[in-house]
Amino acid sequence: MGIRKILMHACCGPCAIYPLEYLRSENFDIIMGYFYNPNIHPFTEWQKRKQNFQKFAESEKMKVIIDENYDLEAFLQNIVHRESKRCWYCYTMRLFHTASIAKRGKFDAFTTTLLVSPFQKHELIKKAGEIAASKYGVEFYYVDFRSGFKEAYKKAKATGHYLQQYCGCIYSERDRYMPKKQ
User: Fold this and answer.
1) Per-residue confidence (pLDDT) for residue 180, from 0 to 100
2) Which H or E element spans position 39?
3) CB-CB contact of 168 with 39 (8 Å)
């Protein structure tokens, strides 16, 4: 069958723990991480997640591509007045970009660590991945990684990973920290 290569979009180090373990058990010859997350706000949060992912990848001897493009303005311009659809836009933006990189890099497939979190909109991620796969002609390697979330979180905590407190965008930050109305 030849060498099997997969590109794994990653939002952060902790969320990459279980998907990387899983993909290694699936005998991919090359697993490369890809950090592309211009949705994360503020910039200091983006930097923490990027640095933590790089630290994780180095400890796991995983090669990575880091997209330094922090185009928060484009992200915000695409969701203003469409806030109820912000997650859909966020998933498609990142997965389309990942699929295009996978195509250029001649990967057999791509996936995302977003599929590990029980707090994400799983069906939307799956649909976005499938549409990106169809558009770019690269397989979306769909796996429901949520079964490994709790154990990965424990490992991340035990190994001193930075553990973010919200999904990433300015709206999720607000939802996390703003007092709830009674």
Assistant:
1) 81
2) none
3) yes
Q: Is 6 helix (H, G, I), strand (E, B) or coil?
A: strand
DSSP state of 33: E
133 belongs to a structural domain: yes
pTM for the predicted model, two decimal places: 0.94
Nearest residue to 118 (alpha-carbon basis) of 153, 79, 88, 83:
153
Number of domains observed in the structure of the chain: 1
The arithmetic mean of pLDDT across residues 148-167, rounded, is 93
Residue 182 lies in a domain: no
Can you give the CATH number for the domain in which 71 is found?
3.40.50.620
Domain of 138?
A: 5-177
- Residue 98: other Cβ atoms inside 10 A: 27
Q: Is residue 145 part of a domain?
A: yes
Residue at 61 is within a domain: yes
Question: Which DSSP string corresponds to 98-148?
Answer: HHHHHHHTT-SEEEEGGGG-TTS-HHHHHHHHHHHHHHHT-EE----GGGG
> What's the pLDDT tens digit per position in 22-65?
999 998 999 999 999 999 999 999 999 999 999 999 999 999 99
**With contact defined as beta carbons under 8 Å apart, do 11 and 49 qualify?**
yes
Predicted confidence (pLDDT) per residue in 63-108, tens digit: 999 999 999 899 999 989 998 999 999 999 999 999 999 999 999 9
